[in-house]
Write a structure and sequence with these properties.
This protein is α+β, with helices and mostly antiparallel strands and 339 residues long. The chain has 10 helices and 13 strands.
């Protein structure tokens, strides 16, 4: 089978903000995925979506399948760019469809769906102009985030605020710098958890990963900020969280967290793979912060492979399982259309 690997490559560009390329993948990650697919006997062609005219490329180069990790170039619906093109050209691909990718990137819309499905998520308010009145029901501390960004872009320790003055200062800063709405939500104190789901005939919930920030006191960061994600493991900066996989949870809480992640995966309509970020409060209520249908697949640093390894998988098996899941799904859908 001829497989195209679509991606956006990280670059160095001092004219861009420091977090501009954070969602994009490194050459090492692209190479690792390509090698994993090739080990299963497939031919792989690498396609950098940042500098390729995809319409022209796929019309000139026939492929059987696309393994998509591309985040898209820009805009609130950027993660849907490549799937939309592939749908138009009738080329099957891994991962979620255009709707689910666009939805998941919009945090406030996702949270509305979670609330409708009775899935716990922190209380929130969306600020469009930055002059709106604060909902009096919201309780400090609050955290301010760009509404349509991933990889913790625009988030650092100062985004957690204790006063109205600090809140509105940060809200206006986010709206100005990221040219989008600012999401304000109650900051949940508790365990930071992330839960991976992979489909192979049926959805499989991977062992829960717990991220402990108690070892990061020197950094001044106490949650998954942009600096924490970008420079994780840097001893000098104190960005050295400790990881526990499986998470340190009793059996009942573990089941509750896994059920919550699976319900989120299904509510957003994800396919093949997703990773849900959860804060477990002091009453063992799992609050969903967000879901990522395009989780990082760096074999050494990304959280999703760590959970897959804890489940006994090798990296090449993880990549192949994603490919097989997508292939089987497209074959089933084709048969339904024929009938």
């Amino acid at each position: 089978m001829k497989v195209a690997l679509t991606y956006n490559l990280k670059e160095k560009d001092e004219t861009k903000p420091a977090d501009y390329f954070s969602e994009f993948d490194s050459a090492e990650t692209v190479g690792a995925i390509a090698q994993a697919i090739e080990k299963k006997g497939h031919e792989v062609c690498r396609v950098n979506a940042s500098n390729t005219d995809l319409f022209s490329y796929f019309r000139k180069n026939k492929v059987d399948f696309v393994f998509n990790i591309a985040e898209g170039k820009s805009g609130k619906f950027r993660e849907s760019e490549i799937p939309a093109i592939l749908d138009y050209l009738d080329i099957p691909y891994t991962g979620s469809n255009t709707f689910s990718l666009a939805l998941a990137l919009n945090k406030s819309l996702t949270k509305k769906i979670l609330k409708a499905e009775n899935i716990p998520t922190p209380a929130f308010q969306l600020f469009v102009k930055g002059t709106e009145e604060l909902d009096p029901s919201l309780k400090f501390p609050l955290i301010v985030k760009p509404n349509c960004e991933g990889s913790a872009k625009g988030i650092n320790a100062s985004n957690v605020v204790e006063t109205k003055e600090a809140l509105f200062k940060k809200v206006k800063e986010i709206i100005r710098d990221y040219k989008q709405e600012a999401l304000v939500e109650e900051f949940i104190r508790g365990k930071e958890l992330t839960v991976g789901i992979i489909e192979n005939g049926k959805a499989q919930v991977l062992p829960i990963l717990e991220i402990d920030f108690d070892t990061c006191v020197k950094s001044g960061e106490f949650f998954y900020s942009w600096r924490m994600k970008e420079f994780q493991g840097n001893m000098e900066l104190g960005l050295v969280p400790s990881f526990h996989c499986p998470a340190r949870l009793d059996a009942a809480t573990e089941k509750l967290v896994k059920d919550t992640a699976l319900a989120t995966h299904q509510a957003v309509g994800c396919s093949d793979i997703s990773r849900t970020d959860i804060r477990l409060d002091r009453n063992n209520v799992p609050y969903v912060l967000e879901i990522n249908p395009l989780p990082g697949l760096d074999p050494k640093e990304s959280n999703f492979p760590v959970m897959a390894y804890a489940a006994g998988m090798k990296y090449e098996d993880l990549i192949n399982m994603i490919l097989i899941s997508a292939k089987d799904r497209f074959l089933k859908n084709s048969k339904r259309e024929e009938n």
